[in-house]
Amino acid sequence: MADEVKLFGVWASPYSRRVEVALKLKGVKYEFIEEDLSNKSDLLLKYNPVHKKIPVLLHNGKPIVESLVILEYIDETWKGNPILPHDPYQKAVARFWAKFLDEKCFPALRKAFSSKEDEQEKAIEEASELLKILENELNGKKFFGGDKIGLVDIVANFIGFWLGVIQEAKGEELLLTHKKFPILCKWIDEYVNCSVIKENLPCQR
Amino acid sequence: MSKEEVVLLGFWASPFCNRANIALAEKGVAFEGREEDLFGGKSDLLLKSNPIYQKVPVLLHNGKPVCESTNIVSYIDETWPSPPLLPPCPYGRATARFWADFIDKKVFDGGNSIWKSKGEQLEVAKKGFLEILKQLEGAMGEKDYFGGDSFGFVDIIAVPLTSWFYAYEKFGGCKLEDYCPKLYAWMKRCLERESVAKVLPDPEKVYEFVINLRKMHGIE
């Protein structure tokens, strides 16, 4: 019997896109259902009653929620093109960086771009410190995952794509400059050119 | 026989450290526990092993550091597979990881907001915390443990936080068991296990510790 895979998401959400990248990497066919977050569907509320958020992966009718949980589920269910390393220590390292990105980096980056003028300088400084940590972690590697993209690269999509878009929209290089973060900028180039990512970039509306 | 060196940098009152202790005990792994002086001065080893967060717990396995408690418990489960803490099927594992994530995000902060607040804010904090506990009860349903018939991953993530419940009751002026009897039945079940009973601190001592924390935070 064929697998039935559905993904409830939002085209503009990096969390939703992460799951799509993972499914595409594994060659899994799925149906994408766009949610209107201002008017959440009954199905979304039924499948994610605790957090009421996207993305929600539905596999043969069973819901999986929280993007990091979904990514591990995808990796364990469809074995080709592994997202996580096999070695427990390397896995722990990858999980650590994925959490660092979600819990520290993205909130700081969002704050840097949405702060008012008087708070913005401090917010940018804090975000820069975190980007520096990522830059140091990448040093020497093509991707966070090594030669191929892995969990951390997929989770870092906010930096890989959205950051550049936001900076362009604001019309200035507030934060991510080639001068300050040469390694991270090189990673972004590799990242957007990686085929599975290329097919998954939302158009820059 | 391979020589394994396992060191756990921890702190007695930290539920996050206790998670790692319990997991190692469940697996029968011999390790050296080193108590960190979090307020007097963190050790060089801790600062070197966890430079980003500078927090406990840190597990050092043959010198290699693993940080973040849920990550450490996963690592322990994968490195010493027997007995397994997670169910074998991906869906069961995803469910376990979901609840571990929920517990991580909600329980400690939710409970601590009780002793950090006063007056009307305290009532809001209490109400919020009770809702969280009710959701956990829902997750367990009629099962003995979060994972089903046997003690496992989510139980290890959750149970150490319960040693702080007495402190929340004292500051909140409420008896939590009245609101979530199923959760308390589960707590008692877990405390019958040697790995849990030997590790979890005395709730009275945790309460005294919280009194000091309050003073340090300048709350009166």
Residue share in helices of chain B? 55-70%
CATH topology of the largest domain in chain A: Glutathione S-transferase Yfyf (Class Pi), Chain A, domain 2
CATH class assignment of the largest domain in chain A? Mainly Alpha
What's the alpha carbon Rg of chain B, rounded to whole Å? 17 Å
CATH 2nd-level architecture of the largest domain in chain B? Up-down Bundle
Determine the N-to-C terminus distance of chain A.
39 Å
Oligomer: heterodimer
Strand order of the largest sheet of chain B: 2-1-3-4
The greatest interface between two protein chains, and residues involved on each side, is: A-B, 22 and 21 residues
Mean pLDDT of chain A: 89
Keywords (chain A): Transferase
Family (chain A): Belongs to the GST superfamily.
Protein name (chain A): glutathione transferase
InterPro entries (chain A): Glutathione-S-Trfase_C-like (IPR010987), Glutathione-S-Trfase_C_sf (IPR036282), Glutathione_S-Trfase (IPR040079), Glutathione_S-Trfase_N (IPR004045), GST_C (IPR004046), GST_C_Tau (IPR045074), Omega/Tau-like (IPR045073), Thioredoxin-like_sf (IPR036249)
Summarize the topology.
The complex is a heterodimer of chains A (205) and B (220).
Chain A: E1 5-9, H1 14-25, E2 31-34, H2 42-47, E3 56-59, E4 62-65, H3 67-77, H4 88-114, H5 117-138, H6 151-155, H7 157-170, H8 182-193, H9 195-198
Parallel strand pairs in A: 1-2
Antiparallel strand pairs in A: 1-3, 3-4
Helix pairs in contact in A: 1-3, 4-5, 5-8
Chain B: E1 6-10, H1 15-27, E2 32-35, H2 44-49, E3 58-61, E4 64-67, H3 69-79, H4 90-116, H5 119-140, H6 153-158, H7 165-172, H8 176-179, H9 181-191, H10 194-199, H11 203-216
Parallel strand pairs in B: 1-2
Antiparallel strand pairs in B: 1-3, 3-4
Helix pairs in contact in B: 1-3, 4-5, 4-7, 7-11
